[in-house]
């Protein structure tokens, strides 16, 4: 019995979400790496976070959440490819 899967978001929105999420993952992984290494430009001031290791962990956690968005939106794009344009879903 085939599963009838309908898209939740439009194809354009799914593509846009995927692209922005990939950029978000890259930026958050870089920031997490910099905070994990205690880069002086991010941790040298008195107004910077007191625990840069915790900030690095939160950056990595946010990157995982963005990864879930990449998976979801990628699956949405696959569902859109399954149905030709103009088909009533």
From TrEMBL:
<feature type="transmembrane region" description="Helical">
    <location>
        <begin position="55"/>
        <end position="75"/>
    </location>
</feature>
<keyword id="KW-0472">Membrane</keyword>
<keyword id="KW-0812">Transmembrane</keyword>
<keyword id="KW-1133">Transmembrane helix</keyword>
<dbReference type="GO" id="GO:0016020">
    <property type="term" value="C:membrane"/>
</dbReference>
<dbReference type="Pfam" id="PF23489">
    <property type="entry name" value="V-ATPase_su_f"/>
</dbReference>
<feature type="transmembrane region" description="Helical">
    <location>
        <begin position="12"/>
        <end position="35"/>
    </location>
</feature>
<protein>
    <submittedName>
        <fullName>Uncharacterized protein</fullName>
    </submittedName>
</protein>
<dbReference type="GO" id="GO:0004521">
    <property type="term" value="F:RNA endonuclease activity"/>
</dbReference>
<dbReference type="InterPro" id="IPR026770">
    <property type="entry name" value="RNase_K"/>
</dbReference>
<dbReference type="InterPro" id="IPR056552">
    <property type="entry name" value="Ribonucl_Kappa"/>
</dbReference>
């Amino acid at each position: 019995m085939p599963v009838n899967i309908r898209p939740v978001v439009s194809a354009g929105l799914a593509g846009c979400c995927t692209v922005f999420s990939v950029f978000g993952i890259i930026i958050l992984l870089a920031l997490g790496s910099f905070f994990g290494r205690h880069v002086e430009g991010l941790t040298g001031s008195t107004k910077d976070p007191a625990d840069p290791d915790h900030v690095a962990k939160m950056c990595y956690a946010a990157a995982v959440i963005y990864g879930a968005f990449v998976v979801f939106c990628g699956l949405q794009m696959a569902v859109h490819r399954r149905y030709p344009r103009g088909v009533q879903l």
